[in-house]
Amino acid sequence: MSQTKKNRITVDIYGVQYVVIGTESPRHIRRVASVVDEKMREINSMNPSLGTNKLAVLTAMNIVNDYLQLKEKVAHLEEELKRVKD
């Protein structure tokens, strides 16, 4: 049975410290936290009266929206590549 090394990193997101445990590199974990922090601050600047819970949900929705759009673009590009190869 293979053991994957887990990294334990403390990150700061929107002024709160979180301990994140994952198999990704510390650099990657910090980058993810930084993107979440930036998105929360961006949304807060447009909606300063939002509570933290609503802000977190809107941030998650925005990030998932970005992810799904990129996933669709990748699928489209893979289809185009397949057509070009055939």
Automatic annotation (TrEMBL):
It is found in: Cytoplasm. GO terms for biological process: division septum assembly; FtsZ-dependent cytokinesis; septin ring assembly. This is Cell division protein ZapA. It comes from the Bacteria. Activator of cell division through the inhibition of FtsZ GTPase activity, therefore promoting FtsZ assembly into bundles of protofilaments necessary for the formation of the division Z ring. It is recruited early at mid-cell but it is not essential for cell division. Homodimer. Interacts with FtsZ. The gene is zapA. SUPFAM superfamilies: Cell division protein ZapA-like. InterPro entries: Bac_CellDiv_Activator (IPR053712), Cell_div_ZapA-like (IPR007838), Cell_div_ZapA-like_sf (IPR036192). The keyword Cell division applies. It comes from Niallia endozanthoxylica. GO terms for cellular component: cell division site; cell septum; cytosol. Keywords: Cell cycle, Cell division, Cytoplasm, Septation.
